[in-house]
Amino acid sequence: MHKTLSDVLSSTLKPLCPRDSHAMHYEAKGIHWKNDSGDTDSMPSYHCGYIGCSVRYTHQQGYFTVVKTPEQPYFVGEPATNLLQCPRHGAWLYRCRSEKEDHFHWRCGVEGCGSASEFYIPEEIPLTRKRSLSRGVMGVSASFLGQVS
């Protein structure tokens, strides 16, 4: 696995929120806090921003929410969403739309990386479960979904 400190979160991604499947938006100074010297540090991230939703995504943390603590933010991973990592960078993959109705892609968030996996929702899943999965309820493991090569 190739991993360097220069792995930068791309600002042109189109991740979907795992809670509500809304498009997430890039924020260059998305998460900020005061460091030990009193200066403000920040970390870019994607934020859902849908009414009441606080989910964020970075390639280093995956999908998460932020709990503000007095000194610096504390990241809480979204349950059952950070399932796949890039084979090149070890970065958490994000979920995005596919042109096919019953497919979605997991892609690497590192600038310039083309790693992606396409998954489909198998026909044997009951229709109500299929609709939930296609809307982004990620309560199943990746092994439950079929991978398209």
Could you explain how this protein is built, in words?
The chain has 149 residues and is mainly beta. The protein folds into two domains: 25-77, no CATH class; 93-148, no CATH class. It contains one helix and nine strands. It is globular and about 50 Å long. The model is unreliable at 1-6 and 121-149 (pLDDT under 50).
List keywords for this structure.
single chain; 149 residues; mainly beta; five-stranded antiparallel sheet; four-stranded antiparallel sheet; 1 helix; 9 strands; disordered N terminus
User: What coarse outline follows from CA principal-axis ratios?
Assistant: globular
> SS-based structural class?
mainly beta
How many domains?
Answer: 2
Number of strands: 9
Main sheet: strand order:
1-2-3-4-5
**Strand residue content:** 25-35%
pLDDT below 50 for ≥5 consecutive residues: which ranges? 1-6, 121-149
Distance between the termini: 21 Å
Which H/E pattern describes the elements? EEEEEEEEHE
The amount of helix comes to: under 10%
> Main β-sheet: number of strands, strand sense, barrel status?
5 strands, antiparallel
Helix count equals: 1
Q: Whole-number average pLDDT?
A: 75
The rounded Rg comes to 16 Å
Secondary-structure blueprint:
Elements: E1 25-34, E2 40-47, E3 56-58, E4 62-67, E5 74-77, E6 93-97, E7 103-108, E8 116-120, H1 127-135, E9 146-148
Antiparallel strand pairs: 1-2, 2-3, 3-4, 4-5, 6-7, 7-8, 8-9
